[in-house]
Amino acid sequence: MRGFWLELLWFVVSVGAFGAFVWGMAWGYPLGRDTIWTIGGVAVLIVAAMGVHALVRAWQAGVA
Fold first, then answer.
1. For residues 42 and 56, is the Cβ–Cβ distance under 8 A?
2. In terms of Cα–Cα distance, which of 64, 52, 59 is closest to 3?
3. Residues 31-56: tens digit of each pLDDT
4. pLDDT for residue 64 is more than 70
5. Per-residue CA distances from 15 to 3, 41, 44, 62 (Å)
6. Which of 2, 25, 52, 64 is 20 to 30 A away from residue 38, measured at CA?
7. 0.70 exceeded by the pTM?
8. Could you give the CA distance from residue 36 to residue 10 in angstroms, rounded to a whole number?
9. Burial class (CB in 10 A: 0-12, 13-18, 19+), 45
């Protein structure tokens, strides 16, 4: 079960760091803020979706 919590921590940190990166881009280029938030939001969702498989595998390994 420890592996799941470590994987969850990594998931939260990676999605948070990517969100902070998108925020920094939007802050740094105010004229494109709306576009950056739209594209960045989709990218954050994709990054989160890619991490779900690892969370499920870690959960299954901890339960078994």
1. no
2. 59
3. 999 999 999 999 999 989 999 999 99
4. no
5. 18, 11, 7, 23
6. 52
7. yes
8. 25
9. exposed
DSSP conformation letters of 1-64 = -HHHHHHHHHHHHHHHHHHHHHHHHHHH-GGGHHHHHHHHHHHHHHHHHHHHHHHHHHHHHHH-
- Alpha-carbon dihedral sign for residues 32, 40, 23, 37: positive
- Tally of CB atoms within 10 A around 36: 19
How far is it, in rounded angstroms, from Cα 23 to Cα 57?
Answer: 30
